[in-house]
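Incident log, structure service

09:12 report received: a user says their structure output differs between two submissions of the same chain.
09:20 pulled the input from the user's history:
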Amino acid sequence: MTLSQALIPAKSRLSQVLLVLAGTVFIALAAQISVRLLPVPMTLQTLAILIVGLTLGSRLGAATLLVYLGEGAMGLPVFAGGASTLAYMTGPTGGFLIGFVAMAWLAGLAVEKGLARGFAGTAVVAIVVSVLLYFPGLAWPAAVLGKTLPDLWSGWMAPFLVGDALKAVIAALVVTGGWAVLKGRRA
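09:34 re-ran on a clean worker, output below:
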């Protein structure tokens, strides 16, 4: 069971649509909180994506990210720095944007399979899912921009590892804190 299922047991289509739209707003706002690093900015976007996936589950988490990418493709300023458009989506961060869908889906799937239970389990899942994001994230600039492994390590991965681990732990704290609050209200 996901946190959203525990909070809203009988989900209607309308409630699912509202959860997805709320998730896209949350991610878009988190994307605007940024530390400018080149070539990829460090934002709170992945923190929000982890929280969305761990809270909504695989289907709604992935749907949220697909809608989010659609919003950006339509020109809404949802990406880091208020960026949007298909041109941005096919730029240097394109692999990460595509990987966001898998990130939310995998985080949600781990919750549904019982792998993300308690703080430690949720933190491990969030860290593993964050590491997996680097595969499409780095494959894209390697294929499209011809970046080499040393370039990818020094500019696209190494500067972000500590921040991504910290965001994974924060996501685990937020989600397990949400469960604790919910259980406290029911007691």
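09:41 both user submissions now match this output. Likely a transient worker issue. Closing.
09:42 reviewer note: The chain has ten helices and two strands. The chain has a mean pLDDT of 93.
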